[in-house]
Amino acid sequence: MPDAPSAPQDTLPLLALRSTLVFPRGRIAVQVASDDNQALLAAHPEEGALVCCVLTQEEGPGGEVRAVGRVGVVARLTDRRAPIEGLHQVTLEGLMRVTLAGVRREAGARFATATFRPVEEPLADQAAAQALMHRIALAADARADDPARAAADQAAKYRAKDRAAARAQYCARYLLFARVGIGDA
Q1: Distance between CA 38 and CA 84 in Å, rounded?
Q2: 15 — phi, psi (to 5°)?
Q3: 116: which strand partners?
Q4: pTM for this one?
């Protein structure tokens, strides 16, 4: 399986996503419908192929993806499913954040490639991170130890379930039965 690119600037096939974010070290299943992305999958059928993913809804003249300067993620294609009704499903495994430096489509190519640079990840101040984790733990403990709050949270959950059950019962009784000609049940 290929590793994540390590050069200061690399080029990979561009998988333009319309409504899905891929995070480094995350895994997400996506359905691929666009012609460009399906052509990319056909050209790289090997398990573990690397792609550059970017969220974009903008297209320029000729269907070119406008993504230069955007932050994307290098991802590994895994767990491919056979196409169903024109949709391919693949799992993307995020590897690292990158900034797109260029997008290019060669003459006759059915998909674009992206040139990118790794994003410099700032390191958190250790003391500040420890203090934040301590505050979160204290707040969680305080919430769990407050019986009045826990009881109120539980009561709210039951009320929400009761409202949902009452709405379902009303719909079943008056809307569904009325349609099929059954009297008041």
Answers
A1: 12
A2: -105, 100
A3: 10, 100
A4: 0.61
Q: Mapping DSSP to helix (H, G, I), strand (E, B) and coil, where does residue 89 land?
A: strand
In whole angstroms, what is the distance from residue 41 CA to residue 90 CA? 9
Q: Measure the CA–CA gap between 114 and 17, rounded to whole angstroms.
A: 14
Of 63, 66, 52, give the one whose Cα is nearest residue 99: 52
Q: Rounded to whole angstroms, how far apart are CA atoms 157 and 159? A: 6
Alpha carbons within 13 A on the beta-carbon side of 89: 7
Q: Apex CA 76: angle with CA 73 and CA 78, to 5°?
A: 140
Cβ–Cβ under 8 Å, residues 94 and 54: no
Tens-of-pLDDT digits for all 185 residues of the chain? 445 555 445 899 999 888 888 999 999 999 888 888 888 888 888 889 999 999 886 565 555 667 888 899 999 999 888 888 878 889 999 999 999 998 888 888 888 899 999 998 788 788 888 888 888 888 877 766 676 666 666 666 666 666 666 666 655 555 544 444 444 44
Assess contact for 65 and 103: CB atoms under 8 A: yes
Given the DSSP bridges, would you call strands 50-55 and 10-17 parallel, antiparallel or unpaired?
parallel
Residue type, 131: A
